[in-house]
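Exercise (ungraded).
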Amino acid sequence: MSVDTTVESFKGHRLAGWLDWLQMLTGLTLVCFLFAHMLFVGSVLLGAKSFDFVAAFFERTYLAQVGGPILFFLFLLHGFLGARKMPFRTKEQKLIVRHAKMMHHRDTWFWVIQAITGAILLVIASIHMWTVLSDLPITAAKGAHELETGLWLIFYLLLIIVGALHGCIGLYRIGVKWGVVTRAKRTKALKCIYYLIGVYVVVELLNLLRFYFLKV
Amino acid sequence: MQTFYTDMLCIGGGLAGERVAIEAASAGFDCIILSLVPPRRSHSCAAQGGMQAALGNCAMGEGDSPDVHFEDTVKGSDWGCDQEVARLFVDTAPIVMRELAFWGVPWNRVVPGPAVYFKGGQKFEVYEKEEKAGLITARAFGGTAKWRTCYTSDGTGHSVLYTMDCKALEVGVEVHDRVEALSLIHDGENCLGVVARCLRTGELRVYFAKTVLIATGGYGRIYKHTTNAVINQGTGLILALDTGIVPLGNMEAVQFHPTGIVPTDILVTEGCRGDGGTLLDKNEYRFMPDYEPEKAELASRDVVSRRMTEHIRKGFGVKSPYGEHLWLDIRHLGEKHITTKLREVYDICMNFLGINPIHELIPVRPTQHYSMGGVRTNKDGAAYGLKGLFAAGEAACWDLHGFNRLGGNSLAETVVAGKIVGEKIVEFLKGYEVNIKTSYATAEVKKQKERIEKLKNSSGGENVYKLRNEMQEIMMEKVGIFRNEKDLQEAVDSLRTLLDRSKKLSLASNGIGANPELAEALRLPGMIKVALCIAYGALQRKESRGAHYREDYPYRNDKEWLKRTLATWKQGDDLPTLEYEPASKVFHLPPGDRGYGEGKVIPSDEDEKSGDNK
Amino acid sequence: MSRTLHFEIFRYNPMDPDSKPHMQTYYLEEKDNMTLFLALNEIRETQDPSLQFDFVCRAAVCGSCAMVINGRPGLACKTKTKDLPDKIVLHPLPVFKLIGDLSVDTGTWFRGVAKKIEAWVHTTKTFDPNALEERMDNDLANEIFELDRCIECGCCIAACGTARMREDFLGAATINKIARFYIDPRDERTDEEYFEVIGTDEGVFGCMGLLGCEDVCPKQIPLQDQLGIMRRKMAIASLGGKVGKLFSVFSKKKK
């Protein structure tokens, strides 16, 4: 006995696979960007001039004007794809929290964290991208000016932490889901993820402080 | 009331039941399996060791054939088996193993080249042939001349059961799990179906069927210490006994396994000894070679169990809060062997004892393990007394095992008998019609309803668990490995009293829904009857044969006892009625010495003529 | 060592109109080598004969007795009381239909998914009783057995966040089952046919990598690794056409 399958019905079902690829690839791209972003912004540690130089480079090559919106699109796409897996109804949300509490299980909590940070990111990273991309060129002075209001400081603190958690845990879970992080490599992978979160948060905090105390 | 109708109704969803069901369903008949638990949870899944079939693929099995297998089986049975059945079995077993491979069982295969084995603690090397590469391989089991036990690592029962259940699913066998058959519906001549109780809701149901198969496995739970699962309470045997017509065969033939762990009585496979595990006493001295110089730990189960008990009685047992025991030593097999080929054993020791068998000794004692007796059938699997009633597997007395079963023969029996009986049922069903009168069902349902109501409302004051424990203790102490007139008589007397007291059972709980106390109370009187069949049969059998060992009659007596006990239970009696029939219609292998270096034989007259047939 | 164990056990008999879901307290003297199997039976026999729970083999091979033990799904028969604190809280497994107290209907659930994924060897051949068996490499046989070891206890399903939120999620045990047939050369199903069965959001793509399954599996089946492998294979199959062919070098099934 074998399964009868028609070509048509098979093609229709491929969508789930394609969407899964997309979710993984957009996620991976965004994590890469996150760390690249950390390094670009990190140029401010060397001074406002070097930051402005890097920023100008991106604009001169139109990477900011074209790449920015593309990234924004990928970001929204990733958010949409992720939302397909998220608990939307209150009943489901309650269930997953109750489940996590019952299990006392690290990786289950990771997922809850990721779901929450994902939802937050969708809002605050959008704001961040909008404010930056709608007011080109990017300069250190603008950044410093923005931070003069305390509210933005809190905003960026939140963005750093939420972004780090979502990105790094996401990276770990891509590894797990796609079989790169196997049973044998799991402990090591987790350690790497903790380091990554640490590095990202520390560097971005330094960046933030540098902007905050930047006198232009 | 829910009423079902089917061509074949299979009571029990273990290996035997499913194999028969597959045969019937494949032939286009409607088939329903009733099972106390989901079929994959049946006790068949716990069998670790393997299945015997004379494939002769591995180096140590070279030269094996159904003839050699036949000889081992008959000797093992101490000539108590039906030799026609044994012949049928050994000839069919290789085909069934191959069929299982075809269905998906991941049998271990021959790896060509030099291989290292352990036997009796000794390491030795053999060469596996290139031409046999990839064929089904085998391991050693007690009481066999050749290595012929097919296995999948140490989860043979599990893999075969899962493959079987997959096959059953494929061919459309319907499964009603968590349903317990309470009694057979019959008209005194034909079996018409069963009255059953749903263990989810507690409601009664009627199943009408042209044929009914009893495949409920063993009854180990009437003993205090047993390797059997908690569902092995002999429920199928009770169904047969309650008809008053259908006899149980050789109920006194009860096998004890040498290596149940202390205190939980979980079995550690014979594979341990097959692979070279040894038995040690309190001085960590290996005693088996003293008793059985040739086979040592690999003598048949009844012999090893008895020697262990004997050694403990001599004062060499290890004392523990749970009674005396001996040690099983597998340390010399090494970590790799223990954690792969004997992983289930490793897990059992770690999980249930907190003992690491790579470095430590395992506490073991002989424990009730297998019931050779059961619903007596002919070689087609048809029960005596009722048309349309069949039995297969451990629940049946087909009679492949006689008075002692070889390791690996029972698991093989489930599927081999399953195929053979299944084919016979298909033959039987073709063109078969029976008049089903609903009044028989109505009467039976009324009877069961009254029983349940009586239990719920009774103020008799007898507690079901207390009574059950008393029965289990009597059986363990007085109808165990060593038996004698005095103990057996006492056992029969106390069991009769228990049976009487069981009429005054009353529930402590409300009995609503899937109430476990009610389920137990419904089974208990039947269990006591089964116990009485064993004790009374053992009392009457004044000889020692296979696992039935009488201290007061230590010889096998072929002159008077080369026969099979048949026990029926007439309504209103408090003892079974015993009758006897010849052990075998034909003797391809005349009674002789088992070759285990124990026991004397009183030969029958014919036997003297037939000469030496070792 | 003797301590008094304090049990909090979920009680509800759906067949009894007077019964309401609640937690009931029992106390029991701990004994040497006590497992939850022994403890629960003692409670039933001496304190409360109506208490429902399931045991069959009591040796961790049949998968009947899974329950939530102090928050974690596990097999009661192989849980030693000495490894637990004084207070032991027992719940029935979530996801599965409750039969009563600690007893749930895992059998129907697993039979349902087995039907859905057609969990049997699909072959066009017929069995020839006179022929030798088809040869198989012993390593492959062991590999199949390794995945075949699942006892369908339901722990991985109960521990899975996805399964709790999405009723139709197949769960780790089922995907592992598919993996077992996937590596079995006797099963002639193609990648596309497997994709049809589990290449969906209810199948491999529904797994969100929470690893609850991996961490509670009482048989230590490599669920994490199998989920990864199957996701990769199915994702590549989903590409189809030329792209799929490019990747298929890495995912060729042993035939």
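Further reading is listed at the end of the chapter. For now, observe: The interface with chain A takes residues 170 of chain B (CB under 8 Å). DSSP finds 17 helices and 24 strands in chain B.
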